[in-house]
Design a protein that fits this description.
With 494 residues, this protein is of the alpha/beta class. It has 2 domains: 231 residues, P-loop containing nucleotide triphosphate hydrolases (Rossmann fold); 241 residues, P-loop containing nucleotide triphosphate hydrolases (Rossmann fold, 3-Layer(aba) Sandwich). It is built from 17 helices and 25 strands. Strands 15, 18, 21, 22, 23, 24 and 25 form a 7-stranded mixed β-sheet that branches. A 6-stranded mixed β-sheet has the order 6-9-10-3-11-12, sandwiched between helices. The mean pLDDT is 85.
Length: 494
């Protein structure tokens, strides 16, 4: 008997059929992976399950009875907890207040003290988190554990985790996996959604794969390989996830000397050639993002110099995004929603907003020219939108990322900093972005890729450096590194 059984679920939004007869069956005490590309229907299905959407047809059975939640509150009370990729915590409140938020016990108009209940939930997770801690002071990994503790306190029977490791370090990911094992031992079912297929393979017992709103495969995880999963996800064989396009390196495009600030305490020096793809590895907070943000002028450098194309020698202290763009540098931020996009604006304006001079004459903006140019760039990157006048929010995460990349190409910059370029997007979109990075190198662009995902760096980059507490290793050819050597320097500096 299944703890949770969704059968033949249909859901449409106008003419768009988001779910077309989806089936999902989950047992108590199992980790069930829900896999699919962006737009496959995973989020819609989970919103149906959590009560945010009402299905058009189909049946849901939970704990042996018909289950028809009218809103997320119904779902939570029934025993289904959703942990979103974007955490839903109040950072100014304590851990205990966040855990009990919305499920407080009130007696005679007073909120009952629930610290013992909170302590028990935190103790079960085996982490050094105290109820009185202010939530904003916790790492992202520990904040995620607070969300899980909230599910335990509400006596959830099913916990849904949406991209739980997308912002976690390797150490936090290991801690999370231990907690998931604890949940399994308690008989709690975990529905695990992730684009990191190696993780999915490691942590999951069973799987369901969605494609275009339909269930296309299901079974035991031990009986399927990652290539088979990818084939079912994208509807075609993906023999080469990391396309390799031959490209040559040329003269030095970027020279960084003795760059440093409070986030980069050990001065960083390196050079980057035209046509070179340099990977930056390291743990979260090691200084990877901080280094490229300082070069771009988003974070103020205290000292050092930056030389661009062998002629523009800039004092790092005076660097700014304006000067970086003017000198042919460009940055793709890891924080797509807050620093990479204006979600309230249409697609075409997101693509052109930082280079409007191309479409102005005598102080007037040529809207038609701007729109047509944006349309061309969107088509070049295979952005799946028939109308670039639509809001950014209508695009999937993968296609939003393509718009961010299209904006960089629209600038025609020579040096590109790509910070976590494939975070939170599906395998098919990742492969397209890897191919684009290779094609840019063929064009002679100098590229730095910052990533927490080692297979990505080994699959895409020509050279690699590792950072540890603000110190950068020597840059070496990618073939001169092993994953063990990368992790050794990242964790110990040796």
């Amino acid at each position: 008997m299944y703890l949770l059984d969704l059968d033949n679920i249909h859901k449409s939004f106008g003419a768009v059929k988001a779910l077309k007869g989806v089936t999902l069956k989950v047992k108590a005490g199992e980790v069930h992976a829900l896999i699919g590309e962006n737009g496959a229907g995973k989020s819609t299905l989970m919103k149906v399950l959590s009560g945010a959407h009402t299905p058009d047809s189909g049946q849901i059975m939970f704990l042996g009875s018909s289950y028809q939640p009218q809103n997320p509150s119904d779902s939570r009370k029934a025993g289904i907890a959703m942990i979103y990729q974007e955490l839903t915590l109040a950072p100014h409140l304590t851990v205990a207040e966040n855990i009990m938020l919305g499920i407080e016990t009130v007696r005679f108009g007073m909120v009952k003290n629930s610290k013992e209940k909170v302590k028990q939930a935190l103790a079960l997770l085996g982490q050094d988190i105290q109820p009185d801690m202010i939530t904003r002071n916790l790492s992202i990994g520990k904040q995620q554990l607070v969300e899980i503790a909230r599910a335990l306190v509400s006596e959830a029977k099913v916990v849904i985790m949406d991209e739980p490791t997308s912002s976690l370090s390797a150490e936090d990911t290991k801690s999370l996996f231990k907690v998931i094992q604890t949940l399994k031992n308690q008989g709690i079912a975990v529905i695990y959604i992730s684009h990191f297929l190696e993780e999915v393979k490691e942590i999951s017992d069973n799987f369901t794969i969605l494609r275009d709103g339909e269930t296309v495969a299901t079974g035991e995880m031990k009986n399927v390989t990652i290539p088979q999963i990818i084939r079912n996800m994208v509807g075609r064989s993906v023999d080469e996830l990391y396309p390799s396009i031959p490209h040559q390196t040329g003269e030095i495009a970027l020279e960084v000397n003795q760059l440093g600030n409070k986030l980069i305490p050990k001065n960083v020096s390196f050079s980057l050639r035209k046509g070179e793809i340099l990977g930056l590895a390291g743990l979260v907070g090691a200084g990877r993002s901080e280094t490229i943000r300082a070069i771009f002028g988003l974070d103020k450098a205290r000292h050092g110099t930056v030389k661009i194309n062998g002629k523009t020698d800039l004092k790092a202290f005076y660097l700014s995004p304006d000067s970086a763009l003017a000198n042919g540098l460009d940055l793709l931020s890891e924080n797509r929603k807050e620093e990479g996009l204006a979600l309230n604006l249409p697609i075409y304006q997101n693509l052109t907003l930082s280079a409007l001079k191309k479409y102005t004459k005598f102080g007037f903006l040529n809207l038609k020219k701007e729109y047509e140019s944006a349309k061309v760039w969107a088509e070049k990157l295979n952005t799946k939108s028939e109308n670039v006048g639509k809001p950014m929010t209508t695009l999937s995460g993968g296609n939003q990322q393509k718009v961010c990349l299209a904006r960089l190409l629209h600038h025609e910059s020579d040096v590109l900093f790509l910070d976590e370029p494939t975070r939170g997007i599906d395998v098919g979109s990742k492969s397209e972005i890897y191919r684009l990075i290779q094609e840019l190198a063929v064009q002679g662009k100098a590229i730095i890729v910052v990533s927490s995902y080692l297979p990505e760096l080994f699959g895409v980059c020509d050279t690699l450096a590792v950072m540890h507490r603000g110190e950068m290793s020597a840059v070496r050819k990618i073939g001169a590194w092993t994953e063990e050597e990368v992790m050794s320097f990242a964790t110990s500096g040796q």
